[in-house]
Amino acid sequence: MREVTPAEVSDRAVVDVREPHEWQLGHADGAIHIPMSEIVERLHEVPDGAAVICRSGARSGQVVAYLEQQGLDAVNVAGGTLAWAAAGRPMTGTVV
């Protein structure tokens, strides 16, 4: 599984796999919200080359492994939304 830091996410689409209540607290600007539990049925919505993010990087890492098994190019955002916010990347809301 490949990882990138929040600073290395440039032209990739960001897919946030956290639960709806987490998403509502705050997320990366422009991110696509597909909860981890919905990835299988919404696979067609995941852009090839996506940067996958969760709160800390654990769930998104599992999703990236699955996406790679399905033949998609995907990377895990190391440190998740916590690292994204700490790096000063654009956010909607705040991460608690």
TrEMBL record:
Identify the InterPro entries for this entry.
Answer: GlpE_sulfurtransferase, Rhodanese-like_dom, Rhodanese-like_dom_sf
> Rhodanese domain: from which residue to which, for each copy?
8-93
Pfam families, from UniProt?
A: Rhodanese (PF00581)
SUPFAM superfamilies registered for this protein in UniProt: Rhodanese/Cell cycle control phosphatase (SSF52821)
Lineage top rank: taxon: Bacteria
The species is: Agrococcus baldri
Q: Which PROSITE patterns match?
A: RHODANESE_3 (PS50206)
Name of the protein in question: Rhodanese-related sulfurtransferase
